[in-house]
Design a protein that fits this description.
By secondary structure, this protein is α/β, with parallel strands linked by helices. The chain is built from 15 helices and 13 strands. The chain has helices at 24-27, 31-38, 56-63, 68-71, 75-83, 122-136, 186-199, 203-210, 233-237, 248-256, 275-287, 299-305, 309-333, 381-384, 393-400; strands at 2-8, 41-45, 92-102, 111-114, 141-147, 150-155, 218-225, 241-244, 260-262, 292-297, 338-342, 360-366, 388-390.
Length: 403
């Protein structure tokens, strides 16, 4: 049996009046996914436990079978593992976005315009992070380049008890209303302010402005945590697998769980990612003997953060046709029995442009146990609400792997 979990990040949403009071999943062309739903099981799952912020860290741990209430130690340490940073037990990792602030005046009065600096390239970002590290790095603090706008700061013998805000949660809001809080957090604020002076006139940003692109003119620090310790995925479920994602967070979870992680050239984590390359990578992993592929696609989430409704709908069509369809075609061609779970890690409603903890729809299909065909079953929120319900994502994972 081959197992595929397909995660269209942030695909869940709310009804939108302009879509005829339907959600993006209801109107998106998803023939392949909905064919699985017609002959499979649909339902809803709560991937975010009570009291836990609806971040991709908690949500993806949950979908992969790990209870975030037990295993979540912070987002950035998982990303640090992906980058290859060796953390000691007393190190603290912080997610370090390079973002766009807009406006004039003091740092506090600038507006958080873009959490991703226009999906800046990793090559450009690397120059900016190196400039920040050269100016602000010390024996105790070090900055590391990640992917695109997502980077990492390690503080040796650091603390975690700070109130830090993800920038994608406060788009178009005043920076001063969301600066770090908590005892001892002043050093983080000062670094963010100093980074603005370092980056706003950097040649990379001058070039971006000349090209009509958003400048990456400040770092924004959040997502702190200490070294994670996940139990082995193989010990949990007895299968060997691979994660395929453009996002360091997902790669880090995979590495910490003992899964393989595959990098796909041209995989950007946006609407314009290399969908074909991701499908080819999954097919190759299955044919090379892997039992399981965790396929994570960031595009719907990024479209939601940008308020791009049409892009979100188009992204789901691409995932359906360019990713899932060729993978299933190859499994059939190879004569493999297979089980598929399609589930967003969380909702990212276009109306709020950030994550929510509301349950998300799922589809499970088993090629050895087809259900009676039912056209009313589909991959969307309304159909899911009429099906099964799981109060936690890790319980859905256990059900999917028949633990």
């Amino acid at each position: 049996m081959k197992y595929l979990i397909l995660v269209p990040d942030g695909a869940g949403d709310e009804v939108i009046e302009a879509l005829g009071n339907k959600t993006p999943l209801e109107v998106a062309e998803m023939q392949t996914i909905n064919e699985l739903a017609h002959k499979g099981t649909v339902g809803m799952v709560k991937t975010i436990p009570p009291g836990v912020a609806p971040g991709s860290d908690a949500a993806n741990l949950s979908v992969m079978g790990y209870d975030p209430a037990i295993y979540l130690t912070g987002r950035s340490p998982l990303e640090a593992a992906s980058i290859g940073i060796e953390m000691s037990d007393t190190d603290v990792a912080f997610r370090t976005n390079i973002i766009t602030l807009a406006g004039e005046g003091e740092y506090e009065d600038l507006t958080i315009k873009d959490h991703s600096s226009g999906d800046i390239t990793t090559e450009e970002a690397d120059q900016l992070i190196k400039a920040v590290d050269e100016a602000l790095g010390t024996d105790m603090i070090k900055f590391y380049t990640g992917v695109s706008y997502r980077h990492c700061m390690i503080v040796h013998n650091g603390e975690t008890d700070y109130d830090l805000t993800p920038p994608h949660d406060v788009l178009d809001q005043r920076a001063g209303d969301h600066l770090p809080k908590g005892e001892g957090s002043e050093f983080i604020t000062e670094m963010m302010k100093k980074s603005y002076e370092i980056l706003k006139d950097h040649p990379v940003n001058k070039s971006r402005i000349e090209r009509g692109l958003n400048p990456a003119n400040t770092i924004w620090i959040w997502g702190q945590g200490k070294k994670p310790s996940l139990s082995s995925f193989y010990d949990k479920y007895g299968i060997k697998g691979t994660a395929i994602s453009a996002v360091d967070l997902i790669k880090g979870i995979a590495i910490c769980a003992g899964l393989n992680s595959v990098d796909v050239e041209g995989a950007t984590g946006t609407l314009h990612t290399n969908f074909d390359g991701k499908a080819e990578a999954a097919i190759r992993e299955f044919r090379d003997g892997k039992d399981f592929v965790y396929m994570h696609l960031e595009g719907p989430d990024e479209c939601s953060h940008q308020g791009d409704r049409d892009g979100k709908i188009e992204c789901m069509k691409s995932i359906d046709q360019k990713v899932l369809k060729p993978i299933l075609d190859s499994l059939k061609e190879d004569g493999e029995d297979y089980r598929v779970l399609v589930v967003p890690d969380h909702r990212t409603p276009l109306a709020i442009r950030t994550h929510s903890a509301t349950p998300v729809p799922f589809v499970i299909y088993d090629s050895t146990d087809e259900q009676p065909y039912d056209e009313a079953k589909s991959f969307c929120e309304k159909a899911g609400e009429k099906g099964m319900y799981f109060d936690s994502g890790f319980e859905l994972a256990d059900y999917f792997f028949k633990k």
